[in-house]
Amino acid sequence: MRIGELARRTGVSERSLRYYEQQGLLVADRTSGGHRDYPEQAVDRVVRIQELFAAGLHSRKIARLLPCMRDADGGPSEIATPQLAADLAAERDRIERMITELTNSRDVLDEVINAASRRDP
Amino acid sequence: MRIGELARRTGVSERSLRYYEQQGLLVADRTSGGHRDYPEQAVDRVVRIQELFAAGLHSRKIARLLPCMRDADGGPSEIATPQLAADLAAERDRIERMITELTNSRDVLDEVINAASRRDP
DNA sequence: GTATAAGTTGACATTGATGTCAGGTTCAAG
DNA sequence: CTTGAACCTGACATCAATGTCAACTTATAC
Questions:
Q1: Among A28, A30, A87, A98, fewest CB within 10 Å belongs to which?
Q2: What's the confidence (pLDDT) of residue A76?
Q3: Are B113 and A89 in contact (CB under 8 A)?
Q4: Which residues are registered as beta bridge partners of A37?
């Protein structure tokens, strides 16, 4: 699949897909003419990458993490080193705190929205 | 309370507190000499502001939202207009999706961390 | 009053993913 | 073979919160 289709199917811009490749997060075959050719599995991977970005991980860390994730089609190709695992554990805790904060914010918004809809039913 | 103490107690830098004031998110009395003097209640407010920033709201939107939130000491001083409420509802949905994504990422990290700790117990 | 800590404003820098544009090449269909 | 769509690289711009530094003023304790 080519970059346009991948962009369409993932909702990620072509610009970002090229950036992911530059950062070593995504690999693509090339046609004889140099156009990127992605495997079907790239769709899942891009979604994961996006989620990890949304979770506040930087591309360098994602690059180290990706080989340790199990793919849609099989187990991980690497096991995280103890150091990486500790690093990821810290990220995990940060994400957990983030979820708590987001939940708080969501509840605050709900309250404001409900107050408005009660006045203006 | 002065800015240094507020920064210490909230974990937010003095720089950011001044920025919040500049953006209309935070008000402070001034001493005769011009130093900021915050009420006790500012601590809670700063925490809320941080959470809303973490939820991806921009300062302008937070500024419109804040008067509609109930404070630690009482009800809201304003009720959101229908337009603001609709706007916030969209943010709410975005935050909800974000929580889902973060939960996914957390689970992925857990899996990688567990795989590493199983190999290296 | 003097020293030192804390505060003030203003300006400039940073960060990192993404947008955008230009100039050129490749692909696919007629 | 031609044409228009899709793709390539490279460069520059953006956004918004925060860091940082400078030059100065105020507060506090001795």
A1: A30
A2: 82
A3: yes
A4: A29
- Here the tokens at position A77 are 């190709």
Residues A106, B96 contacting (CB under 8 angstroms): yes
Tell me the average pLDDT of chain B. Answer: 94
Q: Which residues of B15-29 are buried (b: 16+ CB within 10 A; e: fewer)?
A: ebbeebeeeebbebe
Residue stretches of chain A with pLDDT short of 50:
none
Residues A91 and A89: their CA atoms lie apart, in Å, by: 5
Question: Out of B48, B50, B79, whose CB is closest to A119?
Answer: B79
| Distance separating alpha carbons of residues B62 and B57, to the nearest angstrom | 6
Residue carrying structure tokens 């914010």: A105
pLDDT at B73 over 80: no
Nearest protein residue to nucleotide C15 (CA to C1' distance) is A58
Over residues B84-110, mean pLDDT: 95
* CB-CB under 8 Å, B109 with A92: yes
| Kind and range of the H or E run holding A29 | strand A29-30
Judge if the beta carbon of A23 is closer than 7 A to nucleic acid strand C. Answer: yes
**Distance between CA atoms of A101 and A103, rounded to whole angstroms?**
5
Long-range CB contact pairs, A5-13, < 8 A, 24+: A6/A38, A6/A42, A6/A43, A6/A46, A9/A43, A10/A43, A10/A46, A10/A47, A10/A50, A12/A46, A12/A50
CA distance B115 to chain A (A): 7
Closest residue by Cα to the C1' atom of nucleotide C7? B35
Which nt has its C1' nearest the CA of A34?
A: D8
What is the model's pTM?
0.89
Query: CA A19 to CA A36: how far, in whole Å?
Result: 13
